Amino acid sequence: MAKQVEPIKNKVQEVFSKNAEKYVTSSTHAKGSDLSLLPSWLDLPTNSIVLDIATGGGHVVKALAPHASQVFATDLTYQMLEAAKRHLDQTESNISYVIADAESLPFLENTFDAVTCRIAPHHFPHPDIFVKEVARVLKHGGKFLLIDNIAPEEKELDEFVNHLEKLRDESHNRSYSINEWKTWFEQADLTLLKAEARKKTFDYPDWVRRTTTSEEQVKKVDSHLLLANDSISNYFSIQTSNDSIQSITIDEWMALAVKK
């Protein structure tokens, strides 16, 4: 009997299958400053086997393939994986493509020297299970590099940004806090080695239309931002011109952990 896919995962497949090429070309995903940091943070031996979870447009895989022996690019959505393959096949030959659920990885224990996951876990309904799966497939001494949007610790800011993301993207589940991630790392026997919190600014017109499907939906996102109080508006640096939103800034966390 086929395993039933959770509704949020069905929504992820629906949204990303329709917008696969947008995520390949998205400046946020393709040109983030964090991509150039990946090789130095992981410091991979040349014989390393690497797993990239929820690869999206394949940008992490592209950054790491020259530094590893073999890289597995995985994604829940077939069309997304297909788009990544078109993006990467002309430049890299050591990449394998596997359809995989981040919370139920189709790999044996102690398989990978490193696991990466970038700008994706906010779509995952069970991040604690995801982290345990990462730890399971990592070799002892293997490294896990996580990059994702995060929620501030303050409840008002957390609720605001998560509602914003859900209005814009129905496949969004939740942006989690740094303290939540640290707890899940500890539960999976992953030791945090280094981390960096930073601000990430989006060109709003491009960002809001990447996943919205109608002008009505765009207006709902606009309204949520324009009605923000001063404290929220200042925190997320909501920049407007003639009542038109130009840019917003959200929190991102880059963290490197090792399996004990």
From TrEMBL:
The Gene Ontology terms for molecular function here are: methyltransferase activity
Q: Which CDD domains match?
A: AdoMet_MTases
Give the Methyltransferase type domain ranges: 51-145
Give the protein family: Belongs to the methyltransferase superfamily.
Q: What is any one GO biological process for this UniProt entry?
A: methylation
Annotated SUPFAM superfamilies: S-adenosyl-L-methionine-dependent methyltransferases
The question of whether Methyltransferase is a record keyword is answered with: yes
Lineage of source species: Bacteria, Bacillati, Bacillota, Bacilli, Bacillales
**Stated name of the protein:** Methyltransferase domain-containing protein
| Alphabetically ordered keywords of this record | Methyltransferase, Transferase
Q: Keyword NADP: yes or no?
A: no
